[in-house]
Backbone:
């Protein structure tokens, strides 16, 4: 085997290992369930659901929320969305850590799935996380 053939064979083996690793991670993360989060405003008049990274999946606004004016509605939506995103991103970090071990949470952060832990204070984690 000449050096060019050896180089191609080595590259193929690296690519194969990377592919197999990515498939294991993908299966493990998929087994964790949907990486979503939801949160409601303090008064319960607004509920937001997002995917990991903050992609909006749904907003529910009660008729009472509409009577409080635009600034209050905006504040309730943004507060709920920030909290829902923190929950979804926390769940994503948990899934990556389970799939990849210790570097998983760092990988999730590098993918933009970070969050402010203060947004999760005073919360009981879901039973599936224990």
Residues:
């Amino acid at each position: 085997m000449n050096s060019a053939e050896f180089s191609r064979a080595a590259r193929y083996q690296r690519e194969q290992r990377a592919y197999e690793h990515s498939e294991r991670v993908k299966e493990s993360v998929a087994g964790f369930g949907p990486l979503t989060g939801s949160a409601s405003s303090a008064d319960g008049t607004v509920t937001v659901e997002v995917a990991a990274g903050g992609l909006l999946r749904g907003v529910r606004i009660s008729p009472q929320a509409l009577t409080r004016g635009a600034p209050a509605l905006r504040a309730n939506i943004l507060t709920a969305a920030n909290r829902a995103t923190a929950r979804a991103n926390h769940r994503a970090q948990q899934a990556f850590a389970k799939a990849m071990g210790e570097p998983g949470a760092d990988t999730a952060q590098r993918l933009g799935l970070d969050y402010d832990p203060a947004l999760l204070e005073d919360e009981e984690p879901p039973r599936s996380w224990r």
